[in-house]
Automatic annotation (TrEMBL):
It comes from Nonomuraea phyllanthi. Pfam families: ABC_tran. It comes from the Bacteria. Belongs to the ABC transporter superfamily. The keyword Glycoprotein does not apply. This is ATP-binding cassette domain-containing protein. One of its GO terms (biological process) is L-amino acid transport. PROSITE patterns: ABC_TRANSPORTER_1 (PS00211), ABC_TRANSPORTER_2 (PS50893). The keyword ATP-binding applies. One of its GO terms (molecular function) is branched-chain amino acid transmembrane transporter activity. Keywords: Amino-acid transport, ATP-binding, Nucleotide-binding, Transport. InterPro entries: AAA+_ATPase (IPR003593), ABC_transporter-like_ATP-bd (IPR003439), ABC_transporter-like_CS (IPR017871), BCAA_Transport_ATP-bd_LivF (IPR052156), P-loop_NTPase (IPR027417).
Length: 237
């Protein structure tokens, strides 16, 4: 799925957060969104999944998505793993995963997809009857991504998947995201504070600052340019 975003404006009430964002993510590509706290990264993902009011253009393989409600976008294959994961803590792992398929009509293949999620995240198979709230942070992030995969997403939006996780767990998580992207050809937009990790799996990257994209390029170029990293990201990548 090719994602084209043009002149995207979004915010909360009268407060405008995004001031005309423009970006393209090629079919099957991973795109990293970097930038400081409060830049509007989460708002951008919310705009892409219909959770905030938007103006401008959001097109997924030519289909216009701007202004459509979240459930309609989910049916178009847009899966959003929110900041803080959004798993339902009192529900079991299996219930959470099945919820991920709620907009799907092809019930028969849901079982197949559960199997597929277990292949990516073997630890979830051993925890199916356990409350999601009893999982470790890393397992909860795996569950959140697994739940998104139950939608058979064509566009997967990940908001700070590494937040609060140990480096080893984070690396494993990113390896799995890369495998999903490679095997399912799912287009991915990942927001990440850990620029080094995100640039390691992305083809393209954009730096967002106060609601505007201030820098775009191949992940390789942005990673290679230390000065850019210092001035825009505020740290070494
Ligand atoms: N629900 C909300 N209502 C009103 N303002 C909000 C809301 N959520 C975010 N904002 C504001 O929008 C701006 C951008 O926030 P956003 O969460 O998109 O940034 P971010 O880049 O994801 O930051 P972080 O790196 O801290 O997650 C901030 O000024 C924030 O205060
Ligand atoms: Mg955020």
């Amino acid at each position: 799925m090719t994602l084209i975003v043009e002149d995207l404006v979004a915010g909360y009430g009268d407060a405008r957060v995004l001031h005309g964002v423009r970006l393209t993510v090629g079919d099957g590509e991973i795109c990293a969104i970097l930038g400081p706290n409060g830049a509007g990264k989460t708002t951008l993902l919310r705009a892409l999944s219909g959770m905030v009011k938007v103006r401008g253009r959001i097109a997924l393989d030519g289909a216009e998505l701007a202004g459509r409600p979240p459930d309609a976008l989910a049916r178009q294959g847009v899966a959003h793993v929110p900041e803080g994961r959004g798993t339902f803590m009192p529900l079991t792992v299996e219930e959470n995963l099945r919820l991920g398929a709620y907009v799907r009509r092809d019930r028969a293949s849901v079982e197949e997809d559960l199997e597929r999620v277990h292949t990516y995240f073997p630890v979830l198979r051993t925890r199916l009857k356990q409350a999601a709230g009893s999982l470790s942070g890393g397992e909860q992030q795996m569950l959140a991504i697994g739940r998104a995969l139950m939608l058979r997403p064509r566009l997967l939006l990940l908001d700070e998947p590494s937040l609060g996780l140990a480096p080893l767990v984070t690396r494993e998580l990113f390896r799995i995201v890369q495998a999903v992207n490679a095997e399912e050809r799912t287009t991915v937009v990942v927001v990440e504070q850990n620029a080094h990790l995100a640039l390691g799996i992305a083809q393209q990257a954009h730096v967002l600052e106060t609601g505007r994209i201030v820098l775009s390029g191949t992940a390789e170029r942005i990673r290679a340019d230390e000065q850019v990293a210092q001035s825009y990201l505020g740290y070494r990548v």
